Amino acid sequence: MAWISMRAGVCKILATPSGATAVSKPFLQINLKGVFPLQAACISGSVLRDKNKVRPAPFPYKTKRKLDPELPAAARSFDEKSFCIEPNHEFAASFQILKYQLRYSKYIDALAHLLNTGQGVVLERCVYSDFVFLETMHKAGYISKGAHSVYYDIYNNTIDELMKPHLVIYLDIPVPLVQQRIKDRNIPHEVNSKVFTSQYLSDMEYFYKQRYLKEIGTHSELLIYDWSSYGDVEVVIEDIERINFDKFNKYDTKMDDWKLPCEWDWNTARMLYTNDKDILMYSFLIPRFDVPELVLDAYDAHKFRKIWHNAPGMKYDKEFNPDMGDTNLLFKTKKIDHRSSS
Fold first, then answer.
1. Which of 1, 44, 125, 145 is exposed most, by the fewest CB atoms within 10 A?
2. Is 84 left (phi over 0), alpha (psi -120 to 50) or beta?
3. DSSP β-bridge partners for residue 6
């Protein structure tokens, strides 16, 4: 089984059985031709559709930000588009912490899938490279020293609970070419943003190469390619197939997270990522109230909760909300979703 963390591609998890070349090659073809894409920090709706009937989409106000006019200014949404438009906004720090939290949640899901099925997982970026964005934003002055400290308090309290990837693929693109591809893609908030300067992207490249790759390389296998003119996906796949992930013994530092001594330890890890995701996510609750831009005052918090939890689909548990078309509520039994990421 192989675990791959990739820098460029789309935000998806793909499970591919070992040796499933027919499936893995098209996926890599799509991902390796991605252009340093940005991703939206969105939280999915809390209400799932009934399988046997058509009903409104789960709380469309979340994705459309229609609640923002009603919410206090300090509780409104802030995503990558907002960051590109106004990088000096006070929400920049909480935005990046949320991105780390979302990547952490997805990584747990991927670990659970791998340990339950034995299938490899391909991820675009992961929790281990998230600090690159934090450091780049901090150096550019978009994140304060206090918020920087809070991030690392959270990072250090959470990261050791996970298992590092087997393989990291890094697609190297020169900064001028990255800027050109941003222009070619012609997404208005990216093209017109003052964020993606040569200095900002050069700093990001530095933190990738001088910190992330050096640190993750002590544990994981690395494949680095010059992707200026894209590359041959067949060559990448052949390089992956040549790697022997079983060659490392107990004295090697590489793959150390995957050298559990006995079957019961593997069972414990599988149960942790499958059943105790909520416990792992509680590790984000660090009591730091000394950074104003990360703290919502009591009045705003009360107003936010009142509006948020009375919006369509949010008042009751999923599939128990009349305003979403749910019926037969009196006699309906609750289905517990252990893999919910909410």
1. 145
2. alpha
3. 124, 169
Q: Shortest CA distance to 161 belongs to which of 116, 215, 96, 107?
A: 107
Tell me, what DSSP letter sits at residue 210? I
Within the chain, which residue ranges are assigned CATH 3.40.50.300? 3-38+79-295
pLDDT tens per residue across span 113-157: 999 999 989 999 889 999 999 999 999 999 999 999 999 999 999
Rounded CA-CA distance 309/295 in Å is 20
Count helices and strands in the chain by DSSP H and E runs: 14, 5
Type of residue at 286: I
Which CATH number is associated with domain 3-38+79-295? 3.40.50.300
Query: Would you call 284 exposed, middle or buried from its count of C-beta atoms within 10 A (0-12, 13-18, 19+)?
Result: middle
Pairing assessment for the beta strands 167-172 and 221-226 based on DSSP bridges: parallel
The C-alpha R_g of the chain, in whole angstroms, comes to: 21
120-124 sheet: strands from edge to edge: 14-16, 120-124, 3-6, 167-172, 221-226
Whose tokens are 């995701």? That residue is 277
